Every structure is written in C-alpha cells, then in structure tokens.
C-alpha cells in the first residue's frame, strides 16, 4: 500500500485518471483509510478547478479593446 508521501507525489495523476489499475487501487485503498490524504486530494481538486475557472474567465483582447474604446468615447464627449 502507498504511504502518504507517495500519495502526494502521484495525486495529480490520480485526479487526471492517468494511472494504471494497480496504482489506482493502491491509491483508493490508502484514501479509504487516511483522512489526511482525502482532505489533501479534495483541496487539490478544488485548486485545479479554481485555476481552470480562472483560465476560462480571462478577459479577451477584444473585450479589453472594446472597453478601452468605450472609455475613450466617453472621455471625448
Ligand atoms: Zn495518507
């Protein structure tokens, strides 16, 4: 069975489902018995989801140009 240190090293592979069957079973067995690693994986998942949300919500160059154009137009009137 994996120890906690090993779990942290392969946690992102586990969450990405990029792991062979044997390692996945070892991971699940460890997670079942270790609340610290369950919490670690939950927080890692939340962090990954937040980063993806931030990447998807970036303002595009077109939006920035549109906003700056509107500001320029308002300042000229
Ligand atoms: Zn653990």
Amount of helix: over 70%
Treating each run of at least 4 consecutive H or I residues as one helix, how many helices?
4
The biggest beta sheet reads:
none
Distance between the termini: 71 Å
Mean residue pLDDT:
91
Any low-confidence stretches, pLDDT <50, length ≥5? none
Fraction of residues in β-strands: under 5%
Q: Could you say which overall geometry the principal axes of the C-alpha atoms support?
A: rod-shaped
Catalogue the ligands: zinc ion
Count of domains: 1
The total count of strands amounts to 0
The Cα radius of gyration reads: 22 Å
What letter string, H or E per element, gives the SSE order?
A: HHHH
**Alpha-beta classification:** mainly alpha
Compact overview of the structure:
This protein has 77 residues and is mainly alpha-helical. The chain has helices spanning 4-15, 21-33, 35-56, 61-76. It has four helices and no strands.
């Amino acid at each position: 069975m994996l120890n906690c240190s090993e779990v942290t090293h392969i946690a992102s592979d586990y969450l990405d489902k990029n792991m062979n069957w044997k390692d996945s079973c070892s991971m699940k067995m460890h997670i079942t018995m270790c609340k610290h690693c369950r919490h670690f994986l939950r927080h890692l998942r939340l962090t990954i989801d937040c980063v993806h949300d931030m990447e998807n919500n970036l303002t595009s160059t077109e939006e920035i140009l549109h906003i700056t154009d509107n500001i320029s137009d308002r300042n000229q009137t």
